[in-house]
Amino acid sequence: MTAQTTTIRKPAPAAESSHPVDILHKVGIKASNVHDVYSALTTVEGLSGWWTSDTQGDSKVGGVLRFRFHAGGFDMKVLELRPDERVLWQVVAGPKEWIGTKISFDLKQQGDWTIVLFKHQGWKEPVEFMHHCSTKWGVFLLSLKSLLETGKGSPHPNDIKLDSWE
After folding, report:
1. Sequential DSSP letters for 101-165
2. Which end of the chain, N or C, is more open, meaning fewer C-beta atoms within 10 Å of its C-beta?
3. CATH number, domain at 56?
4. Global model pTM greater than 0.85
């Protein structure tokens, strides 16, 4: 009879994701139509009504939109516009964590609701700044909802402040 040995292997410790990570949000906007939501996402006037009042630039495909806040800002190249369906930007200037990431808004009508599926994709790793940005995107998406449901959003500098970074 021969003796057998069994090797028990412990699982490797969990490592941080080496794959890009995304911020995802869904918001429904009541008593609106998809075209009004699309306009709020694709015009300088609309964007300045819910994200930051300091919004400038060219909102056409290939154009660059400039969003400014007290602590800096972001430049977004408009990559895709599908009327009443989809908006896609790529970050071309801003914090290093944002450079090269993409931001999309996919829209669909469901009865009296317009559904916005938001994605900020391609973060290299889930750093603390990503946690902050995820919550701020939620704040601003609720500002978009308020703008379309009540006629008044809360764009920067009138948004909810989360922490000392602002």
Report:
1. -EEEEEEEEETTEEEEEEEEEEESS--HHHHHHHHHHHHHHHHHHHHHHHS----BTSSPP-STT
2. N
3. 3.30.530.20
4. yes
